Amino acid sequence: MSRESVTRRAFLEISAAVAASGALMPRELWAAGQDAVVDVPSSNNHTGYEKVEWKAKPFPMAQVRLKPGLLKDMQERDRVYLFMLPNDRLLHSFRLTAGKPSTAQPLGGWEAPDGDLRGHFAGGHYLSACALMYAATGDEQLRVKAEALVAGLAECQQEDGYLGAYPTSMYDRMKKGSLLPDEQHWNGWTDHVWAPFYTFHKIMAGHLDMYVHCGSETALNTARRMGDWAVQWVTPLTDEQMDKVQRIEHGGMNEALFNLYALTGEKKYLEGGLRFEHKRFFEPLAARQDKLDGLHTNTNIPKVIGAARGYELTGDERYKGIAEFFWQTVVDHHTFAPGGTSNANEGWSAPDTAGSHLAAHGQECCCSYNMLKLTRHLFGWKPDARWMDYYERLLWNVRAGTQSTDGMLMYYLATIPGGWKTFGEAYDSFWCCTGTGVEEYAKLVDTIYFHDENAVYVNQFVSSELSWPEKRARLTQQTSFPEEERTSIVVHAEKPVSFALKLRAPHWSPKIAVSVNGIAEKAVAGSDGYLLLERTWKSGDRVEVSLPMTLRQEPVAGSPELATLAYGPLVLAACMGRDGLSTEMSVNQGPDMNRLPALPMPQFEAASAAGAEAGKEPSWVKTSGDGELRFRTVGQIKEMELKPLYQVMDERYSVYWQKARKG
Ligand SMILES: [Zn+2]
């Protein structure tokens, strides 16, 4: 932690210097109200202040339940981990900051009493995760535990509304563009934090989630008063001071305040959200310019989620353009094969250079979490399968397989050949990615189904059950996808009911086939990429979907000598053995290549030109043929086994391949 944190502090200080020259940087992540408004249960009497409504909306999470399967296992491990963290330990630093006694054993890692982000997890991500988990499972005991934490935190809130695990003096320093007290310099600091508003955002978001998903009025009250404090803090700042403050990572402060406005209708929060707009970052995006090179990835994605919320609440098309251009730019030009973004410096590089930036510390997990959240907004505005194809890629390659069997979370997902997966510890990590991780596995139900008035969108192939009370219907989806290439959906209804079933036709399955009650239906996707089955459904009607997967060789933009392999939505990894790996080496933020050097990238030689062509079935890899997701090379100098990246654990791997040079 110490070496890492020094690096990060140095990063911030450097960024302050660089900011003057037009570049920026810092780090960050978000959490806020799971589309706070869209998902608000009607019991909260929410009226809505949206100017732009989603064309398709997620079902409230309480109406979707996971059935046994891979995702259910991930959810369950996460639920167990949330129960492992005692409230007294979570409250420790908040209580000390508020001048209250605490004899609890302090948490470690980034939540340690001198940790630079203390409070971000304990009073923020943790609450969001509990709220989401309650919505997704109905676990009343967890809701009660989280509500008690909310009450404990409320006792630590200051009269002026401030709530944090360190004092407000840490904020005041930012007006000078520094996080250090005047008399100290980098070599002598003792009293410091990284990113005050980053942490503040997480705490506010956790409270908003507790209100949205658990109906906690105490949490809403705390969030309102936090909002009041933040608004009164930024209002008197000059533009010059605001610019200095924003050089330091500030998460999705715009989004948190927008969400608070969406829940309360109080204009001051809308104005506060607008004040937090980071103009230096947004201006090139609004002009449709890719200036991401050199910027810190996860510092910036939450701001764009804020832009998406800003568009929804104000109707400002500029915000819409920023969100859409940003998403397309990241996905087309700054994404690694599994779907993650961020290079070895947790930043972006020049466009189309991913192949030159393979790293042990690449693909920071919270970047993927945030890109998934942004994607849901874009889908809501214009439902289209391409958003959900991307969602699926991240779900199965970056979110599945980055949680250990005991529920611990990953920070980086290595792209370097010979990398391996590493995980945090239960009480001594609390990284940004621990925070987004506990949220992710709590909200796996949130995107499987969306709906409009007359149609249900089946976005993801996951064993689950959906209640649709407006139609007096339930849908059960049964599948062990991606370990089988099919899914089935059964309708349960009190009486025959008309609605459209929209099934995503994934880009990777050109031979998708559908039948209803055993009779084949035309399987041609509409312009939105969904197959449409519109009829009056009777209870027991059964839809069978066949989703044949094929092997594909995929190009690496800007690196014609490299290739990756995919099977259906699954990115394949070459298995590179366990030699030299110890259990202890898997407990870390990422693989330590000083302890075990990187391995040469696996090479392939295609038997024919066609076999090497991107997007085609490669001639040099075959499935094992035994129905398992196992693959092997054929006709190569060194034959290798492959498996889906999400199944890789405790072994070294590479998802990138190099074309062998012909002598
Ligand atoms: Zn992270």
Summarize the structure.
The protein is of the alpha+beta class and 663 residues long. 35% of the residues lie in helices and 14% in strands. The chain starts with a helix and ends with a strand.
Description of the molecule:
The protein has 663 residues and is of the alpha+beta class. Helix content is 35%, strand content 14%. It contains 17 helices and 21 strands. The strands form three sheets. Strands 13, 14, 15, 16, 17, 18, 19, 20 and 21 form a nine-stranded mixed β-sheet that branches. A seven-stranded antiparallel β-sheet has the order 2-5-6-7-12-9-10, with no helix packed on it. Strands 1-3-4-8-11 form a five-stranded mixed β-sheet. Zinc ion binds next to helix 15 and helix 17.
